[in-house]
Specification:
The chain has 542 residues and is mostly beta strands. It has 3 domains: 27-145, Immunoglobulin-like; 159-322, Immunoglobulin-like; 349-534, Immunoglobulin-like. It is 8% helix and 37% strand. It contains 5 helices and 36 strands. The strands form 8 sheets. Strands 9, 10, 12, 14, 15, 16 and 18 form a 7-stranded mixed sheet that branches. A 6-stranded mixed sheet has the order 24-21-29-34-31-32, with no helix packed on it. Strands 26-28-36-35-30-33 form a 6-stranded mixed sheet. The chain starts with a helix and ends in a 30-residue tail after the last strand.
Length: 542
């Protein structure tokens, strides 16, 4: 009886969701049950967070502009929240799934996300965004396919593989969380996983002579990785929704939170080959393998694992600069990607963001422009909508480094709808940084060593750099991006190093318009969870 009531409620909810999604595009329905489970990915028993009993979680497949109705039941003992790395949530930061926008799902409750893959293609992933749950699993792949009739700049592959790779800890997530909250940084990870499995634990089956697409995402917590396949070259075709020039690589650096698509042809003698993932810029270097199995192979993998780059910064920087936009290829729409001339648009202002690792009140923290973010008791988007005072102060983070003493703050940076901004990420630390911006795809116009100055613009690529949502910043170096603020909402700007994010290296960018038109921003969802000081208020009637 209860399940029938839930089903009826869901049907009514979807019928009245016309303001949240586009009714003339297909709907895809998902029901997820989030539970605890036991896994042994590195040979040690661990508590994991599973979705429908799976680790990693279920794959999401969608076509451009599809509506995704994802009903999530939380059977954990604590609140739970999922975010969608790379999905832009056009006009709809309500559904972004980070605590600055969305209340976590209480235990034994459910919440239905209503998303749209609006004007997007490409390879992405979802993950749990609160309580350091990411160290326990609950992540999975997202594939957004092009609509029929939209040309894709390569022949349909014989198969399409999702590769979720990254570092992993043998320690349970709640213990890691306590380590961070005690004011200490995490130890080094214990190993690497490929699709939730350790050494040679996963197999990719291929037929000789055929070409396959591998969509690789770094879903780890702390380390950049290098991906390679023994004896095979990889043709890069897509980066986070951008079709690229089809350069070939023997190995590919993938930094935290990033996603790449490559084509691999099974053109070698029939046997099994190592699929290798190794850590970058770490000591020691961690390595794990999967298996590329030819269907007519009788020879198992053997011998040494092919080596790859380890700590070479210049090599990685050079590779990053070689990744270019395919100007003639279509994106989610039929017009060529290159018809958007990002380099000819005048920027309205420059924002410089410098990361740091201060100690505040005797505890390790991480900061942006000397501000270490602390969560408010109410999601910022709800506080903004209901005009609840005292939750956050607008412009509570400076737009350039102050180099003063670091402090704790619920930091929100103000900006205006349709601004076109230049953002410089300045890294004076000795570790690679990885930055992600929710709600957006931006153009990585330049990266180099040392201090960024206005003269650095002379080295920008203003013609064919890729648009993406996550970028690396090398040690003692800078990365510059151009970004059109064309998506109204409250958007998380964060480190993809999950300990740094958890301890304050993040803030929110409020993209504001005085317009109340649904063409600029969708209304608050009728089913929005209300928590903190928003509890007891009302969304809107059916």
């Amino acid at each position: 009886m209860r399940e029938n009531r839930v089903l009826c409620s869901l049907i009514i909810f979807v019928l009245f969701a016309v303001n949240e999604v586009t009714a003339d595009n297909p709907y895809r329905f998902f029901t997820w049950k989030v539970t605890y489970g036991v896994i042994y990915p590195l040979g040690v028993k661990q508590q994991a967070i599973l979705i429908n009993g799976q680790f990693p979680g279920p794959q999401i497949d969608a076509v451009t502009n599809d509506n995704l109705i994802i009903n999530v039941y939380n059977y954990l003992k604590e609140p739970f929240l999922i975010s969608w790395n790379g999905l832009q949530q056009r006009r709809n930061s309500w559904q972004d799934g980070v605590y600055g926008t969305t209340c976590a799902i209480p235990p034994l409750r459910n919440f239905t996300y209503v998303l749209q893959a609006k004007d997007q293609i490409g390879s992405y992933f979802y993950f749990p965004s609160t309580a350091f749950h990411k160290a326990a699993g609950a992540f999975g792949g997202i594939r957004i396919w092009s609509r029929p009739g939209i040309p894709v700049p390569f022949a349909p592959p014989a198969g399409d593989f999702t590769v979720l790779a990254g570092d992993w800890f043998k320690t349970n997530h709640y213990i890691l969380r306590r380590v961070l909250e005690s004011g200490r940084n995490l130890p080094s990870p214990d190993g690497l996983l490929i699709n939730g499995r350790g050494w040679n634990g996963y197999t990719f089956n291929v037929n000789p002579g055929k070409t396959y697409r591998f969509r690789i995402s770094n879903v780890g917590l702390s380390a950049s990785i290098n991906f390679r396949i023994q004896g095979h070259v990889m043709k890069l075709v897509e980066v986070e929704g951008s079709h690229t020039l089809q350069n070939t690589y023997s190995s590919l650096d993938i930094h935290l939170g990033q996603s790449y698509s490559v084509l691999v042809t099974a053109d070698q003698p029939p046997k099994d080959y190592y699929v290798v993932v190794s850590s970058r810029f770490t000591s020691p270097i961690l390595t794990t393998t999967a298996v590329l199995h030819y269907s007519n192979s009788w020879q198992k993998v053997s011998g040494p694992v092919p080596g790859g780059p380890t700590t070479e910064i210049a090599w990685s920087l050079q590779q990053a600069r070689s990744i270019r936009w395919n100007l003639t290829a279509s994106g989610p729409r039929p017009n060529p990607q290159g018809s958007y001339h990002y380099g000819l648009i005048k920027t309205s202002r420059t924002i410089i963001l410098a990361n740091s690792a201060p100690v505040i009140n005797g505890k390790q923290r991480f900061a942006v422009n000397s501000v270490s973010f602390v969560q408010a008791d109410t999601p910022l988007k709800l506080a903004d909508y209901f005009k609840i005072p005292g939750v956050f102060n607008l412009n509570s983070i400076p737009t350039t480094p102050t180099w003063g003493n670091a402090y704790l703050q619920t930091s929100v940076m103000g900006s205006n709808f349709r601004e076109y901004v230049e953002i410089v990420f300045q890294n004076w630390e000795d570790t690679v940084q990885s930055w992600h911006i929710d709600g957006y795809s931006f153009f990585v116009v330049g990266m180099d060593g040392g201090q960024w100055t206005p003269a650095s613009r002379a080295r920008y690529n203003l013609r064919d750099t890729v648009a993406r949502c996550t970028t690396q910043v090398y040690p003692r170096a800078w990365t510059a991006i151009y970004m059109a603020l064309d998506n109204v909402g409250m958007w998380n700007v964060r480190s993809e190093s999950w300990a740094r994010q958890y301890l304050g290296q993040q803030f929110y960018l409020r993209v504001y318009t005085s317009s109340t038109s649904f063409r600029d921003e969708l209304p608050i969802p009728r089913n929005a969870l209300l928590c903190g000081r928003a509890r007891g208020r009302h969304t809107r009637p059916l």
